Amino acid sequence: MSNDVVAIRHLLHSHPELSGREKHTHDMLARYLQALNPTHLHLNVGGYGLVAAWYRSDQYATIAFRADIDALPISETLVADYRSVQEGVSHKCGHDGHTAILLRLAEVVEAECPNVNIVLIFQAEEETGKGAKKILESGVLDGYGIDAIYGFHNLPRYSVGSVVLKKGTFAAASVGVAITMEGRQTHAAHPEEGINPAMAVADIIRLMNDYNAAHRSVDDFQQSTLIYTRIGEVAFGTSAGDAQLMFTLRAYSNSKMSELLEYMNARLDKAAKHYGLTVSVDYREPFSAVENTDENVDRLLMLAYRQNKQVYTLDTPFRWSEDFAEYLTHYKGAFMGIGAGEGCMELHHPAYDFPDEVIEDAAMFLYSIALSYRVEG
Questions:
Q1: Which of 1, 87, 170, 356 has CB 3.0 to 4.6 Å from 290, enough for a Cys bridge?
Q2: Strands 168-171, 290-292: parallel, antiparallel or unpaired by DSSP?
């Protein structure tokens, strides 16, 4: 494996950049990719994304691979405890490793010149769910006639080099919901003269909790998680006049997510009318469900078994979300997990660090996917 790729991974890890701010990451990747002589190199795609293509013939299949390049915000308490870097910004999801895997694949593609067109997408803003849409909306991918697209995420607690697959939904749809309730503040001695949203807040929390309990099966999975609430101010002389709630909603399909949103909105409308409140809702960081194409998962299974890889096939989708879902609404393809090691710390933990040993094996597996589409001769 190229020592340069490992060095870049460590540089990225030491200089992480949040979604939408990946300028130095972009520039570093641009310099490295230019030296590998792709037939096309698109810079600043959808912000700080890059697309490198080795496109050699209209007669060849065109296969795309995507890696994400952004980092996570980490709380100051955890930063202090684990001596993380750059004021609470860190690569604790392994996107630095994903980027290194695709750079290694680029090295191999340039050296081998296989009879298949390969498009590598280095995507910004995955953590906020915005990046894939921006890449697609840029139109850069439209001219390549992509036949299939593949994405991946490292998965701790699975053996190094293993492949984690699932037909249908691989990862859940999710959205953040920020709710503001406006009533009327009044003196605490005369609460009846105001409109306190506390009971409405209690109703919504209870109703969403009850709804969770009734929608736990795989076929009907819908979940709301309360992540924040505030009612009124810290002032003993006043009765609260406003409130905020935040939920994260999850479902295993986009249709079930629509059901969940419809239920929540109906309950909010009812609470607003019953308690005389003004209610506003803001939706943040929406992710569609990652829906794999069966034939592409079958291809990955075949290749993994041929290479004697350990394969985990999931019965239940992951509850976390991935904006790779947006590519799968445009192209056939599949998203997979790549084992990061049974002893690897879990994703988003402040002590997590991507294991370099995964890079070569993962890159070569991606290359085998591309080769499975090549034209002989």
A1: 170
A2: antiparallel
